[in-house]
TrEMBL record, chain A:
It comes from Antiquaquibacter soli. This is ABC transporter ATP-binding protein. PROSITE patterns: ABC_TRANSPORTER_1 (PS00211), ABC_TRANSPORTER_2 (PS50893). SMART domains: AAA. Keywords: ATP-binding, Nucleotide-binding, Transport. It holds the Pfam family ABC_tran. The lineage of its organism: Bacteria, Bacillati, Actinomycetota, Actinomycetes, Micrococcales. InterPro entries: AAA+_ATPase, ABC_transp_ATP-bind, ABC_transporter-like_ATP-bd, ABC_transporter-like_CS, P-loop_NTPase. Belongs to the ABC transporter superfamily. One of its GO terms (molecular function) is ATP binding. Residues 7-250 form the ABC transporter domain.
Automatic annotation (TrEMBL), chain B:
It is a multi-pass membrane protein. Its main location: membrane. It comes from Antiquaquibacter soli. Pfam families: BPD_transp_1, BPD_transp_1_N. The chain crosses the membrane at residues 9-29, 95-122, 134-156, 176-196, 238-260, 280-299. This is ABC transporter permease. It comes from the Bacteria. Keywords: Cell membrane, Membrane, Transmembrane, Transmembrane helix, Transport. Residues 95-303 form the ABC transmembrane type-1 domain. It is found in: Cell membrane. Belongs to the binding-protein-dependent transport system permease family. The keyword NAD does not apply.
TrEMBL record, chain C:
The lineage of its organism: Bacteria, Bacillati, Actinomycetota, Actinomycetes, Micrococcales. Residues 323-574 form the ABC transporter domain. This is Dipeptide/oligopeptide/nickel ABC transporter permease/ATP-binding protein. Keywords: ATP-binding, Cell membrane, Membrane, Nucleotide-binding, Transmembrane, Transmembrane helix, Transport. It is found in: Cell membrane; Membrane.
Length: 292, 313, 595
């Protein structure tokens, strides 16, 4: 099977405002691939660069090195016009369902935006909007409403519908459920999976929540300080992690069960102790003269 | 902190320099026409040319500017074309008048508007509505109409204050006070209206901050949180508005000096303008720009003292 | 899908700004006045009974008479005719300034705000330059060069006023540009022009209209002021030149000043009041959107379903009850006089040294319950009924006097968002020392020593440096440790923690949970832990209460609730947890690729 998206040795560096300040390198040599119909989960804590990677794929972050190939073509440095042409291939669902929908536009205006930008006629666009609302299980008459009339979960469905409007092959999902309540979160995740099984769209699914990523991803990559430290099958990375950071991350999330959480806590403290010892040993062997 | 001051100072110097370049090139761009305007339509071309040469207007513009600039840095802004008086002498004798009313109005406005703004934000209800309506009216009525009203009521009808003239503070403090009170009030009302609104808004904003709740949860009284934390946080935006308003005050002073017949920079500017006395106009523009830069620097420093984050930006 | 059954809120009426303005009394009056002024400006000179510049020596300073209703000025010209003609000139001049400012400021603001880069730098710098000069002085200088022309000076004044628009538009555009919906539009394939037209102009439009009313007022005031100085073209009648004439004859004919003053004053006032009315109406339409409390339980039904109570097990604490909340109702007064109840009858007990978890989804009223105990409900909120007993004290509806001996010293609070809960203008040390000196009455040096000890206790590596640091100089995890140190600084008996780890990364969350547990055990504090995370509950709590729409639906020892939840809502929450679910597994038909 061919790869849909291939990220190779990607560097992203943001210029820092102010004279003589050092630019901020958000990504360092990141490589990742996504196949058609596949979900690749990207886990990491704040500042790890996971959102930047998503934005780089969308053409919203300054790529300073490496390449992003979509169906074999480098899309890391496209002009505005060429990038616009890609809108029917790569789409996005953002984290915040409040600021990702323009509060002044009706749902129909929001959903028809990508369609009319491609020259779809008004009546056709309206039919398509109804279809899209159906796909995300919202009533067809929702089109006349404003975003503020919807709950967070419903808004996120609208954002998903917008991403689906042009039948993309890949959707970058940037923390799409982390602003939602627990029960809403589960339903929105199910919707993501259902859509994928029906349309064969691929997801780059970014989240800080290991459980969410585990639930939805075929494969998982873990980011730390702008680098991918571990990647592989979802089972393996989220069940039996190898990299010390992934192990810490895995152990840190509290289990919703008082008995097991007590064990997990003890295990975590043991792991931290082991890692500390290992670090000290590594330091000692690296510079034998310094540890007395 | 020192770096912050130096950076602001440098940008201020650059600003004044650019203003003088732009002002000079616009004012002197007329060349020979300026001489014609001075001498009137009846003068022969020959006399006009001689006058232009005498004033140095026939030289290239950049050369004239270089000449002006090299003198200006030593404090010499040249002489009036009509009276021959040194521009700097005129400016320095009038500076005290203008600064008296402008700085007086700034201080009065700062004190009154902080008081009104905090009162409106903390008390709310009727107090808030009165302050709101008052500041809308104070903002809406042009300052010179207020000045005219004050003259008519307090100077002409009630005769509480002198309608015109200026008494230097060195001659008599009481006399100085009576001569500047009405101008200061007239100037400050518009500023009070604007700044009080800003203070009210930023105090309300600061009151809703999370840290207010946290500080109160530690046992601090509301009064203390407002006096110490809210005021300090609301001060920054209020100072920024005050800085903008100060420039407006210099504008207002020109008109107010005319109404109260105060011998200040504004009056000098009006006279120089009607006679097209370009060296005086040029000198005044420069002095005003320097005043604004100094006041802005002072306000920047005050802001940096209030908020540590400002020092970094 | 269950979500289908959640009803969408009824469609809010969308009414145009103009129509709403017509319902606002101030708006109507100002609009009507401005319409009259506009009409006079257009047809006024035709209505004038005399030529406005016709001077007559017999009429010099003539008082009002049937022939000359408003009298005549110092040159013997008919005042009414001049006033009508002046309206046209003054309004046209102000409009010229307004349009120039609008075009220059809005265009530059849009380009600089949206594209940034060199244009942004240059125009921002230029704005600073223009704003550093007093407008009248520039106009005087210009007049010295170009002579007395109303039109030239208004053209220049338009440029001088353009920063007002520039800064407004620039601020709006830079704010909107970073909104996610603009990113989404870009990914959707919209061109820049389309994004500006659709998403950015719509945001800028209303503020620009409001600003225009204010700028028009300023333009009229400045233009009149300039003419009043006697620097205008004396052959052209304007409000300002009429005022000048009146002022120089103030002792001989005081009425002369009245008419231009009224024209200037009322027009400026109408413009500002109109701007104000527009702003009020716009704010009114935005206000109900508020993101916080977006789903305050508005259920009116007063029937209270039975609470599922689990029996205590061997591990639960017995001992003195520290906090006892009974039938607590918290409500917010709405502008129409009705009351929104966000907590509708909550009862819970916390014993000394016990950790009680309050779990629920957003809008369930859990945070409001916590704030009610602290007596720190947001503005408009109050305890409607019920009691909050704290070690013999009644806190429900208690005033500052009662709380003075309680907050900080006996009940303390750990907030959710670490950064916003520290005052950025003060050092961390001073924010720790100040409350300690007040509540414990100790000296500054003693408080400082204590603060340093606390910082070390909560695991801050370099207490001295953190003590002297400002909040923006430390990380979120460190800030949360500082807040915990502050909360326990006066040895409270009860700690109220509102989602204390929600804003933190998982690894930091684990460390902070360890810290909270250690401190709680060490000091035997009661702890009310508000959270939405079952993992956090499992980690810390002895006892847990589940909240839904302002009510507790199930309560009991933590093991019992997790082992056999009975209430359907608790069950649905537990079912939604993903932690224990299976991983999705590799995509069918793909060979395992090791990278």
């Amino acid at each position: 099977m061919t790869t849909l998206l291939e990220v190779k040795d990607l560097d992203v560096t943001y210029p820092v405002k102010g004279f003589g300040k050092k630019p901020f390198q958000a990504l360092r040599g990141v490589s990742l691939d996504i196949r058609p119909g596949e979900t690749v989960g990207l886990v990491g804590e704040s500042g790890s660069g996971k959102t930047t990677l998503g934005r780089a794929v969308l053409g919203l972050a300054p790529v300073t090195g490496g390449s992003i190939e979509y169906r074999g073509r480098d899309i890391a440095h496209l002009g505005r016009r060429e990038r616009r042409a890609l809108s029917s291939e790569i789409q996005v669902v953002f984290q915040d369902p409040y600021s990702s929908l323009n509060p002044a536009l009706t749902i129909e205006q929001i959903l028809s935006e990508p369609l009319t930008a491609r020259g779809v006629a008004g009546s056709q666009a309206r039919t398509r909007v109804r279809e899209l609302l159906g796909q995300v299980n919202l009533p067809a008459d929702a089109g006349d409403r404003l975003p503020r009339e919807f709950s967070g979960g419903q808004r996120q469905r609208i954002a998903i519908a917008r991403a689906l409007a042009l039948d993309p092959q890949l959707i970058v999902c940037d923390e799409p459920v982390s602003a939602l309540d627990l029960s809403t979160q589960a339903r929105v995740l199910d919707l993501f999976i259902e859509i994928q099984e029906r349309t064969g769209v691929a997801y780059l699914f970014i989240s800080h929540d290991l459980a969410v990523v585990r639930h939805i991803s075929h494969r998982v990559a873990v980011m730390y300080h702008g680098e991918i430290v571990e990647s592989g099958d979802g089972d393996q990375v989220t069940g039996a992690p190898e990299h010390p950071y992934t192990q810490r991350l895995f152990m840190a999330a509290p289990v919703p069960d008082p008995v097991r959480q007590e064990q997990r806590r003890a295990e975590r403290l043991r792991l931290l102790e082991q890692q500390r010892e290992a670090d000290e040993q590594a330091l000692a062997t690296a510079s034998p003269g310094r540890t007395a | 902190m020192l770096q912050f001051i130096l950076r602001r100072l440098l940008s201020g110097v650059v600003l004044v320099f650019v203003i003088t370049v732009v002002a000079f090139s616009l004012l002197y761009a007329g060349g020979g026409d300026i001489a014609r305007r001075i001498l009137g339509q009846n003068a022969t071309q020959d006399i006009v040319d001689r006058k232009a040469a005498e004033l140095g207007l026939t030289r290239p513009l950049w050369e004239q500017y270089g000449d002006w600039f090299s003198h200006a840095v030593t404090g010499d802004f040249g002489r009036s074309w009509f009276t021959g008086q040194l521009v700097m002498n005129g400016v320095s004798s009038r500076l005290a008048v203008t600064l008296s009313i402008v700085i007086g109005a700034t201080l009065l406005a700062a004190i009154v508007s902080v008081f009104l703004g905090v009162l409106a934000a903390v008390r709310g209800g009727a107090v808030d509505r009165v302050v709101q309506v008052g500041s809308v009216l104070g903002f809406a009525i042009p300052g010179f109409l207020i000045a005219l009203g004050l003259v008519i009521v307090f100077a002409i009808n009630l005769k509480w204050f002198k309608a015109t003239g200026y008494i230097p503070i060195t001659t008599s403090f009481a006399g100085w006070l009576t001569s500047v009170t009405l101008p200061i009030i007239a100037l400050s009302i518009g500023v009070i209206a604007t700044v009080a609104q800003q203070v009210r808004g930023s105090v309300i904003d600061a009151l809703e901050r999370d840290y207010v709740r946290t500080l109160r949860s530690r046992g601090l009284s509301m009064r203390r949180v407002v006096a110490k934390h809210v005021l300090r946080n609301a001060g920054g935006p209020a100072l920024a508005v005050l800085a903008v308003q100060f420039v407006g005050l210099l504008s207002g002073a020109v008109i107010v000096e005319q109404i109260f017949a105060l011998p200040g920079l504004g009056q000098m500017a009006v006279q120089a303008t009607s006679s097209a006395d370009i060296p005086i106009v040029m000198g005044l523009v420069t002095v005003m720009a320097v005043i604004v830069v100094i006041v802005n620097l002072a306000i920047d420093l005050a802001q940096a003292a209030l908020n540590p984050k400002v020092r970094l930006s | 899908m269950t979500e289908l059954t959640t009803p969408i809120a009824p469609a809010a009426a969308r009414v145009s700004l103009l129509r709403r303005l017509l319902r606002n009394p101030v708006g109507v009056v100002s609009l009507a006045f401005l319409a009259i002024v506009g009409l006079v400006a257009v047809i006024g000179s035709a209505l004038a009974p005399y030529d406005p510049n016709l001077a007559s020596l017999q009429l010099v300073l003539a008082p009002p008479s049937p022939d000359h209703i408003l009298g005549a000025d110092s040159a013997g010209r008919d005042v009414l005719s001049r006033l009508l003609a002046a309206t046209q000139i003054s309004i046209a001049a102000a409009l010229l300034g307004l349009v120039v400012a609008l075009v220059v400021g809005v265009t530059a603001g849009l380009i600089a705000g949206y594209y940034g880069g060199w244009f942004d730098q240059v125009s921002s710098w230029f704005t600073g330059l223009v704003m550093a000069l007093p407008g009248i002085v520039v106009l005087l200088a210009a007049r010295a060069v170009v002579g007395p022309s109303v039109w030239y000076s208004m053209l220049i004044f338009g440029v001088l006023l353009s920063p007002a628009y520039f800064r407004l538009v620039y601020a709006a555009v830079t704010a909107v540009k970073n909104e996610l919906y603009v990113d989404a539009a870009r990914v959707s394939g919209l061109s820049d022009l389309r994004i500006i037209a659709r998403h950015i102009l719509s945001v800028v439009r209303a503020p620009v209209i409001i600003q225009s009313a204010i700028i028009a007022g300023i333009a009229i005031a400045i233009q009149s002021g300039l003419e009043f100085l006697g620097l205008g073209d004396m052959s052209v009648p304007t409000w300002g030149s009429m005022l000048n004439d009146g002022f120089s004859n103030i002792y001989k004919a005081p009425l002369l000043m009245l008419w231009p003053s009224l024209a200037i004053g009322l027009t400026c006032m109408a413009l500002v009041l109109l701007a104000n009315a527009m702003r009020d109406e716009l704010e009114r339409s935005v206000r109900p959107v508020g993101r916080r409390r977006r789903r305050a339980a508005a259920v009116v039904a007063e029937e209270r379903p039975a609470v599922v109570v689990h029996a205590d097990d061997a591990k639960t604490r017995t001992g003195e009850v520290l906090l006892s909340v009974r039938d607590l109702v918290v409500g917010y007064d709405k502008p129409d006089g009705s009351l929104t109840r966000v907590v509708r009858g909550v009862s819970l007990d916390i014993r000394r040294g016990e950790v009680h978890g309050l779990i629920g989804e957003s809008g369930s009223g859990k945070t409001q319950t916590a704030f009610a105990v602290l007596g720190l409900l947001p503005a408009g909120g109050r305890v409607v009924s019920g009691s909050i007993g704290f070690d013999g004290l009644e806190l429900a509806g208690a005033g500052e006097k009662v709380y003075r001996g309680v907050r900080g010293s006996r009940i303390a609070y750990v907030p959710q968002e670490p950064m916003s809960n520290l005052d950025g203008a003060f050092t961390i040390g001073s924010q720790l020392v100040e409350p300690m000196r007040l509540t414990l009455g100790i000296s500054k040096a003693e408080a400082k020593e204590r603060a340093l000890g606390l910082l070390e206790r909560v695991g801050i590596p370099n207490p001295k440096r953190t003590f002297a640091a400002y909040p923006h100089e430390i990380s979120g995890g460190m800030a949360q440790r500082v807040l915990i140190a502050g909360a326990v600084s006066c040895d409270p008996e009860l700690l109220i923690a509102d989602e204390p780890t929600t804003a933190l990364d998982v690894t930091v969350q684990a460390e902070v949970l360890d810290l909270v547990r250690d401190l709680q055990e060490e000091r035997q504090m009661g702890l009310l832990l508000v959270t939405h995370n079952f993992g956090v509950v499992a980690d810390l709590c002895d006892r847990v209460s589940v909240m839904q729409s302002g009510l507790i639906v199930e309560t009991g020892p933590v093991r019992s609730i997790f082992a056999h939840a009975e209430h359907p809502y608790t069950q649905s929450l537990l079912d939604a947890i993903l932690e224990d679910g299976p991983a999705r597994g590799a995509l069918a038909g793909t060979p395992e690729v090791a990278r």
